Amino acid sequence: MEAFGLLLHGFAVLLTWKTLALMMVGLVLGIFVGVLPGLGGPNGVAILLPLTFTMDPTSAIVMLSCIYWGALFGGAITSILFNIPGEAWSVATTFDGYPMAQQGQAAEALTAAFTSSFIGSLFAVLLITFLAPGIASFALQFGPPEFFAVYLLTFCSFVGLGREAKHKTIISMALGLLLAGVGMDTVSGQLRMTFGFSDLLRGINFLVAVIGLFGISEILLTMEERLALRGHSARISLHVLWNVWKDLPRYWVTLLRSSAIGAWLGITPGGAIAASFMGYNLAKRFSKDPESFGKGRIEGVFAPETAAHASGTAALLPMLALGIPGSGTAAILLGGLMVWGLNPGPLLFVEHKDFVWGLIASMYLGNIVGLVMVLTTVPVFAAVLRVPFAAIAPMIVVSCAIGAYAIQNAMFDIWLMLVFGVVGYVFKKVGIPLAPFTLALVLGSRAEDAFRLSMIGAGGDLRVFWSNGLVGSITSLAFMLLFWPVISKAFGRVSELLQPVKRTG
Questions:
Q1: How far apart are the C-alpha atoms of 4 and 450, rounded to whole Å?
Q2: What is the pLDDT of residues 278-297, one digit of tens each?
Q3: For residues 433 and 159, is the Cβ–Cβ distance under 8 A?
Q4: Which DSSP symbol is given to 27?
Q5: How confident is the model at residue 259 (pLDDT cuts 50, 70, 90)?
Q6: Is the link from the previous residue into 269 a cis peptide, with omega within 30 of 0?
Q7: Distance between CA 6 and CA 23 in Å, rounded?
Q8: What is the Cα–Cα distance from 293 to 280, expressed in whole angstroms?
């Protein structure tokens, strides 16, 4: 009851013209950085963080968190209309979102993306509201073995539950894991596969690779097809909104499952990227018509967007409760809290109750206002698509180049983006899926670090991954998903053998 009263007090504090204005500014800036490929929520929050140092902590965190919500919403716009992920976790949204746009259903795809984003975020905010005070004891159980088990679960689910050819998925994932090892080894400090290039010391940035793999390769494919217009316009009307929303009950299982997956991977933290891919693959696996995924199925938009946004929002939970950031953006917000003299952790809920519950209240209001804003401003962002492709293609390339350069202020990243553009083009021509490659590239180094730290701590004993109930259950589930095709076939044969016995009985 005390928490509920503090939450209501937080709403009362936020409902002022000043705070609402900061919220609107933050959302507009967030949508912009979400739409611009390569910039994204973490970079947008980092760039704008100094602007908030003169504000009071509540106003500053409201503005920064709304930049985050806006970026989460805006990342879907270019993914669906241009097939260029505005955010790293929007990659899975392109699988069915862009085909829907090609079929003249861009408005439906965007409405589904924004609605599922809101549902996933709302689910996570409800968890934060009720679980934040007591989450410390659970989160402290996660060490390197648990983190590696989560990453292993993500990789195995992609191989075992994916519908693409297994050998192509493994090839794609292996190449991603190989490139994830480029740069300085974070455990030993040794250089790996830099080939004398000082720019490779910091490794290959995932966002640079994603911009090239999806953005530049799409431009190359479109040029090959005689500069056909590949962008799609969208205008969300009340009729479209009603048609999508009235079908939501049909997908309640997908929405609930993706929300749970996203919240779990946000708290642990597995990350929004892993959550979006896992949400998509599980929706595809348990669908009655899995072959329709990748061809413009609205469920293929609901699943990754719900999971990604639940994860992105839930990542703030361990940051507030323990001072352990669950994502890059949460780490930046953690730095901001320290600048304002606030130390995240269990004592934050005791010493600064008004601030914490004001922040949680801003999550509710920010998502509601953000949903309304993106639903009404899509035509503004889609208006650029009226320009002929021959004119807009250079603008897209320049936008991608700016996004790639802005990540680390390095010219080398632009060349790297172009190289990955060619790689993405070749992959698409020979039928190798890009999703496993991008997943392995972003999670590879984290998984390697977690594995090596686990081995160092256990003296090389692999039994550490079954050393307790938590890590053991996650690891066992990972292997079960990896060999799921074999397991399902075995169950099928057993059921076939039992059928004559049942008939005889």
A1: 38
A2: 888 888 888 888 888 888 88
A3: no
A4: H
A5: very high
A6: yes
A7: 20
A8: 9
